[in-house]
């Protein structure tokens, strides 16, 4: 599922984003094979505000679809002249709420009372990301990375070094 090895995905990401990575979990490398661990991808503003996230590994088509959605949605916000923080948050909140309704049949207006009830088992990781970003639009990365990794991906944040076995 190495989406970043896909030439089209790599070119699109390089043309539209600045890429970086940070290890927050632990895993083992056995020879040339990575074993365990997980991944989360974040699409952020230059100030580190999360526009969108992908929790877990995806194929190149899924990565491209989500990256294109971020770019096109950002362009629409610009076209609408949304410049204040309040208006941008409302715009992105609605964008994630719309995807939650379209793709996961969850109407936030009907479920607001149940949001305090913890995880929503009917939602997959994509739905949980949209729920998070529909209720807390444009959070700083440092405010949500642990939540995404531990509550959506069910992994532990760890400072333990990568374990290398063999070659």
Q: Can you offer a commentary on this structure?
A:
- It is a single chain.
- This protein has 167 residues and is α+β, with helices and mostly antiparallel strands.
- It has one domain (3-165).
- The chain has six helices and five strands.
- It has helices at 7-16, 60-79, 85-104, 108-111, 125-135, 141-152; strands at residues 28-30, 33-35, 40-44, 50-55, 163-165.
- The strands form two sheets. A three-stranded mixed β-sheet has the order 2-1-5, with no helix packed on it.
- A hairpin with a 5-residue loop joins strand 3 (40-44) and strand 4.
- The radius of gyration is 17 Å and the shape is globular.
- The mean pLDDT is 88.
Number of strands: 5
The percent of residues in helical segments reads 40-55%
SS-based structural class? alpha+beta
Oligomer: single chain
C-alpha geometry: globular
Profile the largest sheet.
Answer: 3 strands, mixed
Number of domains: 1
Walk across the major sheet and give the strand order.
2-1-5
Distance between the ends: 23 Å
Overall mean pLDDT stands at 88
The helix/strand series, from N terminus to C terminus, equals HEEEEHHHHHE
Brief summary of the model shown:
With 167 residues, the chain is of the alpha+beta class. It has helices at residues 7-16, 60-79, 85-104, 108-111, 125-135, 141-152; strands at 28-30, 33-35, 40-44, 50-55, 163-165.
């Amino acid at each position: 599922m190495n989406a970043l090895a896909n030439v089209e995905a790599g070119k699109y990401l390089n043309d539209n984003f600045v890429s970086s990575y940070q290890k927050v979990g632990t895993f083992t490398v056995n020879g040339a094979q990575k074993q365990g661990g997980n991944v989360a991808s974040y699409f952020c503003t230059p100030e580190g505000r999360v526009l969108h996230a992908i929790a877990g590994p995806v194929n190149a088509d899924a990565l491209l679809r989500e990256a294109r959605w971020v770019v096109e949605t950002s362009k629409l916000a610009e076209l609408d002249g949304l410049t204040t923080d309040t208006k941008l948050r409302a715009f992105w909140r609605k964008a994630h709420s719309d995807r939650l309704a379209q793709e996961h049949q969850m109407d936030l207006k009907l479920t607001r009372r149940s949001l305090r009830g913890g995880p929503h088992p009917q939602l997959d990781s994509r739905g949980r990301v949209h729920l998070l970003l529909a209720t807390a639009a444009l959070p700083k990365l440092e405010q949500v990375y642990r939540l995404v990794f531990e509550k959506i991906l069910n992994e532990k944040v760890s400072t333990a070094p990568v374990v290398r076995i063999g070659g």
